[in-house]
Write a structure and sequence with these properties.
Layout lengths: L1 H10 L2 H95 L5 H32 L10
Length: about 160
């Protein structure tokens, strides 16, 4: 552009030079307006394209985040279950130790255990059963052996 201006300036007078500069400035101005109009028209398209791309990225990010939150929640739940199981096992052991110590203390004091009482109850039931069987068969034998009643002696 500068060369063109120098060629024109070298061969023409000052009025031709001013006209050429004016024409060039006019073309530059029009080119700028055209670029602005094109950018303005394309800007809406670019803006809409950027909005669509942002929505797509937001959707993908949301899905990934939800999946990761689900994984973390599952891992935390598993950890909580393990901790709960360990705590329950510890309490069970503590309870068993307590029961054993109480049982030993009661045994030292001579207090019978549940097992002792159950054993005695079974023995009493067995004795009652044998007495009943003796009572049935023994009553018939006793009646057969009974001597006759003694008569009262006369006075």
């Amino acid at each position: 552009m500068v060369r063109k201006l120098k060629q024109i300036a070298g061969g023409a007078g000052s009025s031709d030079l001013a006209g050429t500069v004016r024409d060039s400035a006019q073309q530059i101005w029009l080119a700028g307006l055209g670029a602005f109009a094109k950018a303005q028209g394309e800007g809406v398209k670019v803006f809409n394209a950027l909005v669509k791309e942002g929505e797509a990225i937001h959707s993908r990010t949301r899905k990934i985040t939800e999946r990761k939150v689900g994984e973390v929640t599952a891992a935390a739940g598993k950890f909580a279950n393990q901790a709960s199981s360990k705590a329950n096992a510890t309490w069970d052991k503590l309870e068993q130790v307590f029961e054993d110590r109480v049982a030993r203390a009661l045994n030292r004091l001579g207090v019978p255990t549940n097992r002792d009482i159950e054993g005695l109850a079974k023995r009493v039931e067995a004795l009652n059963a044998s007495l009943r069987s003796l009572g049935r068969g023994g009553a018939a034998k006793t009646a057969a052996r009974k001597p006759a009643r003694r008569k009262a002696a006369a006075k």
